[in-house]
Design a protein that fits this description.
590 residues; alpha+beta; 10 helices
Amino acid sequence: MRRFCVIGITILMATLLLGCQSDSNKITTTTATATGVVGTTTGTSEAIVTTDPPANPITSAPITTDKLPSTQLPPTTEPDPPTPPAPEGTGLLTSLVLSTTDNPRLAKDLSFSINEEERTATLKLDYQTYADLATLSSARLIGQAQGGSVTILPSTVDGCVNLMNQPICIVTDENGWVKSYQLIVDRKVYQLPIVNINLADGVAVDAIDRELTTPMTFSLDCTGAEEYESIGAVSGTIRGRGNSTWLWDKKPYKIKLDKKASLLGLDDNKDWILLANYADKSLIRNTLAYELGRVLDHITWSPHSYPVDLFVNGEYRGVYALGEHMEVANGRVDIEEGSTDPDTDYLLEIGGMNMTGDVNGVHYFHTDGRLVRFATFKSPDFEEITEAQKAFITDYFQKAEDAIKKGEGYEKYIDVDSFVDWIILHELSYNVDSCFRRSCFLTKEKGGKIRMGPIWDFDLAFGNFSRDNKKYDNWVTVGSDEKDAYVQYNWCTYLLRDKEFCQRLAERWEEVRDELLTVANDTIDSYGALLDGSQQENFKVWDIWNISAGYQAKWCATANTYEKQLQYLRDFLSKRAKWMDDAIPKLPTN
C-alpha cells in the first residue's frame, strides 16, 4: 500500500508541474481598436496583434517535448478567433460633379464617371472639358448616393478637396457601414505651358477691349513642360492689342500683372503679351525670328516668345505665343529713362503712330528726304519728351540720313554692324512688314549711335504675306519709289549701294550663314515636336486650313497640314539662303 501511495504522489507532482509549464506557454493576444470618422458616423473595427510566447519561467528555456512521454504532452492552445470586419456598406455612389456654381473658373459642369466594380470615380479632362490646377487643387464637389450619405476625405474645413492628391469618396449607409471609391483625375496635358486667364465679374472673352483694361486672374500650368515653373493664380488686367491683327477672329492680348513675376524663366516684369499668330499656321514664325536674332547679336534686343495653350474662363482659345512686351525695362530694352538731357537714350518706332489722332512734330516726325517716315517717340514718350529732346533727335536723324544718302561719314551716326545684322535677318525672312514701314524699332544711347532693333513682328515673314513677291528673288529692304510700293525707299536703299557697307554685309553673311540655318532648322524641328498635340487642338478651334487667314499668302496657304507648314518653312529658308548666296556677291563690293 505504501508503494502505491508513493507512485500516486509522484504522478500527482508531475501532473502539477506540467500544468504550470502549459500555462506559461499560452500565446498572449492583444486587441487594438481603429476608429475612422466619416461625416458624422463612427465605425469601429478590431485588429489582432500577436506576440511571441514567453520563455519557460522555470527553466528559462523552451520545453523539449521529445523527453516527455506522449501521455504527458502539454495541451495545445489556439489564439482567440479575430473579430470579423464590418460588412461593406450597401450605399451606391450615383453622381459626383464639379459645378460652375461652386467652381467659377470652370467653363461648364464636369461629371465623374463611376465604376462600381472597381470602386473608382474618374474625372476625364481634355481641352474641351477642362479644369485648371487652381480648381483641381481646391475643388468643391457635389456627390449623391443611393441609400447613403457622401463624404470626401481628406477635405479642408470649408469643404474643399485637392483632387490632385487622390482623395477618397466614402458612402455611409444607414447602419454606419461604409463603401470607398478612389477619385482619379485623368487629365490630358500636352507639352506646352498652359496659360489660364479668368476674367472678373463674369466678363466674356468677346468683351475684352483694346483700349480699356479688364481685371483678371492669371496662372501658368507647366505640368506638361517640366523645364518651366508653374505660377499660381495672380491678379492683373488684360486688354486687346495690335492693329490689323485685332480685327481678326483670333485676337492678341496684352496682360499686366499687379506684381512683377518671372514667366517661363524670363526676367521679372509686370507686362507680357499673348500673340495670336492667326495668319501664321506654323504658329512659330515670331519665335523662329527671335531665335535667329540672338545669333545676330549686334541688334539691340531680341525678345523671347514661347508657344503656350491659352484658356480664358475655362474655355480653350488655341495656341498663343507668350512673350516679352516691347518696352524699356531691365532685361528688355535696357536704356536710360527719365532724363531731360537732350542727349539721353531714345527708343523710336517707324510707323508706330496712331493714324487718327497723332500729330507730326508732337507724336512723330519725318526726315526731310522722307526716307524715315512716322518716327514715333517711344522713350521718352510724347507725354514726357521735351522740345529740346525732340529737336536733338530729329536733327540727329536728319544728319544720319544726309550722310547715308551721300555715302560718306554715316559711320559717325549709325552702328553699322547693327544695320548689317538687321538687313540679313529681314532679307533671310523676307519680312516686308517691318522694313522701315511699321514695327521697325531703333535706339540711340546717350553719346552713342543709332542702332537697329529691337526686332519685332514676324508673323507675316518667311513667305507668308500676300504682298510678297511670289518668286522671292529680290532685295526686300531696299524698297521702291513707286507710290503703291509696300516698302518705300529708306536708309537701306542707299546703304546697299555703298561698297564699304556691302563688303561688311558679305563678310558677316559668310560668318553667320550656316549657324543661322542650323538654328532655324533646329527651332522648327524642336518646336514642331512640342506643338504636335496642341496644334491639333488649336485647329479644332480655328478651322482655317483651307483659307488664307489674315493676310496670309495664297501659295503658303496651300500647305494645308501642320507638317506641310513646317516643311514650307524649311524649304523657304533653304531657297532664300541660296538666293542670298548668289545675290550678295553682286552688290557693289569693289
